[in-house]
Q: What sequence folds into this?
């Protein structure tokens, strides 16, 4: 097949070379169109470094971090604060590492939202995720953040959510995007975050959870 | 009681008072009972260029629509398909236990969000309340912010007017704990159940870049 095409191409070139030369050279703007296939890859690693876990907010010497049973080891599980007291605040060190790789020459936006509010499985009550779960910039190692390090709140998404039960990772389908948690002009980047938990003083006892969903969109 | 015995008793009393006042162990009879933090988020909109006197740069954010093909005519430009995205979730969990002391010191707002343009001052009357719920007498409450918003947006740009009934004529900048030798500023001494109203005023320097900034207003209760 390739030989056949090559033959036709050669014949066409010979015919073209035998044609009389034109007296004038026509010029035109050539428009080339192509489809650009994007590459967008997001790798999320929970509990990304030794020393991960929850610490009650105190000034001065920091207690050793602890974690719940659903945060079994480095790189695995959930961000499980374990046992906490109503009315207290906590930081969870080394909560998530996000590695983003794209082929976008203009960078990308990183979005992070709650798929719902902070939900108590014991009595189905909720507390607003925007008043309960916060994120704090962290580092790959040597995290020195405390429960009083200023953080920013996650918002409960207004976009449609599929899934989102305790054992069902959710998907958010965006029509429009919220304010990004990070934005960069680079095609690839790493992000490290601690989480903070502010438990309302009137929170009822029970096992709470919320899914935080990260989305990467090229700019 | 003879005069010599009376003098001896006075000397003993004076020694005791001096010991209590100078001994840190005895002085620590006043203890920290509770501490809370209210997150203060300031969403800053960059100042209009015409207001920027010293040429601080404004980083423009170019919004682009999606494009699934690109024309090349004269210059080369490549645009990625904008609809492509990647998504990953992580579950956050906690097992909450009720806390009988959770309402000893608490606020009605765990977070306050203020929208401001760089170069302007925004006031928020009664942004939150701080409640002390105890029968103890002569408790003390102290306050301050934990950190600066940023190196060019210090915590002292956030001022407060904290009062029980009547606002003060002016606001007072918060002290920044991290730069105040680890000392909080006294707010008041009182007894029993009290509710403070906190008016906030934030002054955003004109050179502050757009974005979200936060700090913690911290309240500590002692008796």
A:
């Amino acid at each position: 097949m390739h030989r056949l095409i090559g033959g036709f191409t050669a014949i066409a070139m010979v015919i073209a070379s035998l044609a009389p030369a034109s007296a004038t050279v026509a010029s035109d703007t050539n428009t080339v169109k192509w489809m650009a296939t994007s590459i967008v890859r997001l790798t999320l690693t929970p509990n990304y470094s030794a020393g991960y876990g929850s610490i009650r907010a105190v000034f001065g010497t920091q207690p050793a971090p602890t974690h719940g049973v659903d945060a079994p080891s480095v790189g695995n599980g959930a961000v499980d604060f374990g046992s906490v007291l109503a009315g207290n605040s906590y930081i969870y060190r080394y909560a998530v590492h996000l590695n983003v790789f794209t082929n976008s020459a203009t960078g990308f936006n990183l979005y992070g939202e709650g798929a719902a509010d902070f939900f108590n499985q014991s009595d189905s009550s909720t507390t607003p995720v925007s008043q309960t779960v916060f994120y704090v910039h962290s580092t790959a190692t040597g995290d020195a953040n405390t429960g009083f390090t200023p953080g920013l709140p996650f918002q409960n998404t207004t976009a449609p959510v599929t899934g989102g039960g305790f054992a069902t990772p959710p998907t958010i389908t965006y029509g429009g995007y919220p304010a990004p948690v990070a934005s960069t002009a680079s095609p690839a980047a790493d992000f490290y975050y601690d989480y903070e938990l502010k438990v309302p003083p009137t929170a009822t006892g029970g096992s709470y959870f919320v899914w935080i969903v990260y989305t990467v969109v090229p700019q | 009681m003879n005069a010599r015995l009376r003098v001896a008793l006075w000397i003993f009393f004076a020694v005791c008072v001096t010991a209590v006042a100078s001994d840190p162990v005895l002085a620590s009879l006043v203890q920290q009972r509770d501490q809370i933090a209210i997150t203060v988020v300031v969403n800053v909109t960059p100042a209009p260029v015409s207001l920027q006197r010293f040429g601080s740069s404004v980083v423009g954010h170019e919004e682009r629509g999606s494009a699934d093909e690109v024309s090349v005519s004269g210059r080369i430009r490549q645009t990625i398909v904008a609809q492509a995205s990647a998504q990953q979730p992580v579950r956050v969990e906690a097992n909450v236990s009720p806390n009988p002391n959770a309402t000893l010191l608490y606020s009605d707002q765990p977070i306050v969000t203020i929208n401001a343009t760089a170069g302007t001052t925004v006031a928020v009357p009664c942004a939150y309340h701080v409640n002390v719920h105890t029968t103890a007498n002569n408790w003390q409450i102290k306050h301050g912010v934990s950190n600066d918003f940023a190196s060019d947006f210090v915590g002292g740009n956030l001022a407060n007017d904290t009062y029980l009934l009547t606002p003060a004529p002016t606001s007072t900048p918060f002290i920044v704990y991290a730069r105040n030798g680890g000392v909080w500023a006294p707010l008041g001494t009182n007894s029993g159940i009290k509710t403070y109203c906190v008016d906030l005023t934030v002054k955003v320097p004109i050179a502050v870049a757009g974005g979200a900034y936060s700090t913690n207003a911290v309240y500590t209760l002692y008796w």
